[in-house]
Amino acid sequence: MALLETIHSPADIKKLSLDELAALSREIRSLLVQVVSRNGGHLSSNLGAVDLTLALHRVFDAPRDKIIWDIGHQCYTHKIVTGRRERIGTIRKRGGLLGFPDREESEYDVLNTGHASTSLGFASGLAIARDRRGETQHIVAVIGDGALTGGVALEALNHIGQVKQRLIIVLNDNKMSIAPNVGGISRHLNYLAAGRPYIRMKEVIQNVLKAIPGVGRTLFELAKKIEVLMRTLMVPGSLFDELGIKYIGPINGHSFRDLLKELESAKKYDYPVLLHVVTRKGEGYEPASDDPSSFHSSAPFNIENGKFLGREQGLSYSEVFGRSVRRLVAADRRFIALTAAMPEGTGLDAVQKEFPENFFDVGIAEQYMFDFAGGLALGGFRPVLGVYSTFLQRAIDQVIHDVALMRLPLLIGLDRAGLVGGDGPTHQGIYDIALLQPVPGIVLMAPKDENELQHMVYTASRLERPVFIRFPKEPGRGVPLDEEFRELPLGRAEVLRRGDRVLLLAVGPLTCRALAAAEKLAREDGIEATVVNMRFLKPLDLEQVFSLAADVGKIVTIEDGTVRGGFASIIRGEFQAIGDRRHEFLALGVGEGDVPLASREELLAHFGLDAAGIYRSVKAFVQEQ
Ligand SMILES: Cc1ncc(C[n+]2csc(CCOP(=O)(O)OP(=O)(O)O)c2C)c(N)n1
């Protein structure tokens, strides 16, 4: 790692020759492979962006110039060369570097990100702010072809093309979102990347003329002029030019010579330009370039053979969701599975593989996905959406205004609901209960294990209204899956254990942890608790809850989400509404403030939501006078 050790800040990159840059890039790739093989992380995106990142830091003067990373999952090289090399081994680990840009971590990180397509809006605002303040720095947004399919990015292009502020958009096009990218914009980028017809025609004409012995300069010059004329007359412009943003490219994103030349020239424009940089996801590590999707957000792996380590036994919640949806589709082709660029992550690739006609990947377009699903539902179909809880936040207006008010029968699997390990504050799925609770007419469920999840999918498929099922990113509990789907009674909770001292009302996967805590309380402290698996957060089984509460003075709510506005607030509100003053409440859940970077189990322990934490809190609560 000889060269890398000399890089303490971007200034050190500016001294390097082209050969040294290439050598540095190899060293960084090897470091990235080592670190991600241990910690997990976004390997293929980072490998693809090494050369581009070095070139950006060579040409621009960060932190004075602002380099904004869209989504931010490709920022590892940026972190390495902006003073965080020695800590890169801690990335994604508790107390370590975040796997996304973080303003608190470094002055080089312009924006905290994690959700897609926000870079252009921020770049646009920063550029106007700079101009109004009479400053001169460059504003550079780096956005992937996947993130460019997001609505807010397209809204930004529309505005930037009108306002025409000076800024540089670097489009990092690797033809991939997580899976292969989709849609008309992606197709347009392929057309641009292939070299538009006139470029090919120009080569042909030049080659022909050069091949004719004795063709003089004049004829050659004339041909050049004809080529310019043809370009104007015949060739459709790039989408970006049409929008008012100058298109430059395509540029080989693994050639320092090309990158440095074009980035340097982009500085000269006093209006918005877009540099189309073509890169390869996973570049430099064969297992990742051969299978960029699996190495997009990679588990730890064996460097020698690229095999993932420690894959859990049994099925994940996502897999059970995907398989259950596949069963629905197999039985009734009105069911159509939808994803916003996460076919594998949501488990819906199970449908994609077997019933491609009943599957749509709409790109990173959560808002559109809900409206599209609404249209399908109005047209008599039964859309099933897989979306991570954190990305549902994008589409709350669609949920309320477009879906719930018309009671459209959408089935939505909210994956990664609750505390999410490894990705930090931007990816937590802790707000969905609070966001969905006031939405009229919907059903919200949370299974205690993967077997209950499949029954919930089936139950939801029988309901003629919007149904959300929230489930976590953690290994399934390994319980056997019933062969037959079972319909769960709507709005009924499940009592798992009865006791006379305290009532534990638990949500989803925390139910089993609450049960373990209750067993220990009985065994070691003689405290008998009633444990309820709520199953339905909406409608709530209030009849059962009030009836069980009649026998105890203390009630504990246990949820994998924010207590403010979440399940705790809802239960308290319901007791208040009936004028109850007799009960004391303890809310176990996520308090206000950022969720730290840690694994899921560490986060559960941090918030006292593992079995040990629940045991401690309930014991203290019961023993309080
Ligand atoms: C709103 C939103 N939806 C989904 C995701 C999940 N996601 C993370 S990276 C990614 C693909 C991004 O593709 P691209 O922008 O082309 O970057 P690449 O990884 O190919 O470099 C997706 C869908 C997200 N971060 N934000």
Provide the β-strand percentage band: 5-15%
Number of strands: 17
Distinct ligand kinds: thiamine diphosphate
Distance between the termini: 62 Å
Biggest sheet character? 7 strands, mixed
User: Helical segment tally?
Assistant: 25
Using brief descriptors, characterize the structure shown.
five-stranded parallel beta sheet, 4 domains, Rossmann fold, alpha/beta, binds thiamine diphosphate
Describe this structure in words.
The protein contains 25 helices and 17 strands. It has 625 residues and is of the alpha/beta class. The strands form three sheets. Strands 7-6-8-9-11-10-15 form a seven-stranded mixed sheet, with helices on both faces. Helix 20 links the parallel strand 10 (443-445) and strand 11 (467-470). Thiamine diphosphate binds at residues 45, 48, 71, 73-74, 115-116, 144-147, 172, 174, 176-178, 281, 340-342, 364, 366, 391, 394. Thiamine diphosphate (TPP) is lined by residues 45, 48, 71, 73-74, 115-116, 144-147, 172, 174, 176-178, 281, 340-342, 364, 366, 391, 394.
